[in-house]
Amino acid sequence: MAADFDFSGKTALITGAASGIGAATARWLDAHGITKLVLVDMNRPALDALDLDCEVRRIGGDVSDSALWKIGMAEVTDLDCVLLNAGISDAFPIVDGDLARWRKLMAVNLDGVFLGLRHALKVMRSKGGTIAVTASAAAFKAEPGTAAYAAAKAAVVQLARVAAREGAEHGIRVNAIAPGGVDTPIWDGMDFFADMTKSLGSREAAIASMGEIATPLGRYATADEIAAQIGFLLSDLSANITGAVLRSDGGYTL
Ligand code: NAD
Hints:
The chain has helices spanning 20-31, 44-48, 66-72, 99-123, 147-168, 191-200, 203-214, 223-234, and strands spanning 11-15, 36-41, 55-60, 81-84, 129-134, 172-179, 182-183, 221-222, 245-248. It is α/β, with parallel strands linked by helices and 254 residues long. The longest helix is centred in the middle third of the chain and has 25 residues, at 99-123. The chain is globular. The site of nicotinamide-adenine-dinucleotide (NAD) has 27 residues, from α1 and α4.
């Protein structure tokens, strides 16, 4: 294993760790020697089902709830790496926009990252560290129906950039990853995806078709690919990179 990719002796926190990109990153860090993982997700049974070799602390909770960060995470103070990744998806045209749906999405996808950054910047001040946030290609596109999601993700990009400025003097780097489509369960709650799955005969065919249509490279990513790129951002290999946005989208935003 390249020394720069060796996470032994380190502790990492991951939110949204029970599924998709978060779970893949937990497995990637585990495979790269991390000593301890603190995994947060509101889906406690799925969090409990993750099978990992390193020491693991599992915390069930909602990232948009400040009590989780103040009370549930009060003892989580020794962190080297943090991935703020928990997120939900929703789509509706602005003209039909329901304020409760808007607020729910903003609470999870934006407040959750703000609260996580606040915690991470506070506890990492003494010895530095690396933070990654999961934004989205939606931050750079204007697809109809994505107002809440796109606005939240664009705000997440700017939050990460400001956090990079505020963390720099303490040796804390903050970067964002902006994936395009990734094959994870996040699609399964979307009505249009259910329709595509039905008409094309399988979930795999629906993911393949979306990737082919939407991206110059002709495919969506796997969660494992995105996890490795997050691993790079959290590792010493990206030592001079802070405030960056890594677009990992098969050319979707070109
Ligand atoms: P996923 O649904 O597989 O995983 C998301 C996880 O977050 C789930 O385990 C869920 O329980 C958890 N979660 C949701 N709300 C939470 C809350 N309030 N508190 C704590 N945990 C919560 O989806 P994913 O695709 O792995 O998504 C991870 C991140 O990647 C999200 O921020 C998403 O917006 C972003 N993203 C995904 C894609 C994609 O195509 N899958 C593309 C770009 C960005």
